[in-house]
Amino acid sequence: METINIGENLRIFIEKNFKNLTEFCKVFGMSVQSLHKYLTNQRKPGAEILAKLSRLGCDINWLLTNQSSSQNQKTELKYISIEDAEKITVPPILSYPILGTIPAGMAEIVDYERFEYFDFDFNPQTHGMLKIDEEFGFSMMPLVGPGDICIISFYDKPKNGDWVAARWDETKGALKELAVDDEDPSKVILLSYNQTMRPIVKDINKVKLWKVPVIIRTANKR
Fold it and tell me: Which fold has domain 127-216?
């Protein structure tokens, strides 16, 4: 029978995706001492730890069983009872009525006789939130300003024209509009709404991009 070493699997994941243990602890929000207990199997990761690892891209099934999720997809389907199925909780899709249209310029508001609906599918396992920096959050004003919240998707691939949360050089990042360089597909261009700010051009392999599907404006005064 194959021996499963969760601590060793966790170490492999960290070494593959982070510069060192210290960087992982900083990103994860854990002390090096606590991490050592998981790496040496003195402590087993619970649901909260596993959820955070999953959001960082760790294959939890592989971590716990040595089998990747793709391997498990080939296994025989197992059926569960109705009673067990009713116990499964799924994050809801919030459906909001669209009351009408409102112009960005000078025009008339149009009220809908029958509502359209916008489905807001927010799952904490697949989405996260970032707060716009209070000191360096002015390049996208007045659309977005300091203190506003942006929701990022961990899995939706950004495309040309999308708003994205970008990260590069380990610690640098920004909320920008994504533009694809048609002449050089190896580059991405990050645009500010404030036209006085110069575009940021980065090698596509040296920048991480997360799609921003929703911006939440706070009550802060502009």
Answer: Umud Fragment, subunit A (2.10.109)
pLDDT at 187 over 80: yes
The set of residues, in sequence order, having a beta carbon less than 8 Å from that of 126 and lying 6+ positions away, is 153, 154, 155
Q: What distance in Å separates the CA atoms of residue 177 and residue 137, rounded to the nearest whole number?
A: 14
pTM across the whole model: 0.48
Domain ranges in the chain are 6-72, 127-216
Residue 163 is encoded by which pair of tokens? 């708003």
Fold (CATH) for 6-72 = 434 Repressor (Amino-terminal Domain) (1.10.260)
Buried b (16+ CB within 10 A) or exposed e, 158-167: beeebbbbbe
The tens digit of pLDDT for each residue in 137-177 reads 677 777 777 788 888 888 788 888 898 988 888 778 888 89
> How confident is the prediction for the chain on average, in pLDDT?
76
Q: Is 68 exposed, middle or buried (0-12, 13-18, 19+ CB in 10 A)?
A: exposed
Cis-peptide into 103, omega within 30 deg: no
In 3-state terms the chain splits into helix, strand, coil percentages (rounded to 5) of 25, 30, 45
Rounded (5°) CA angle 146-147-152: 100
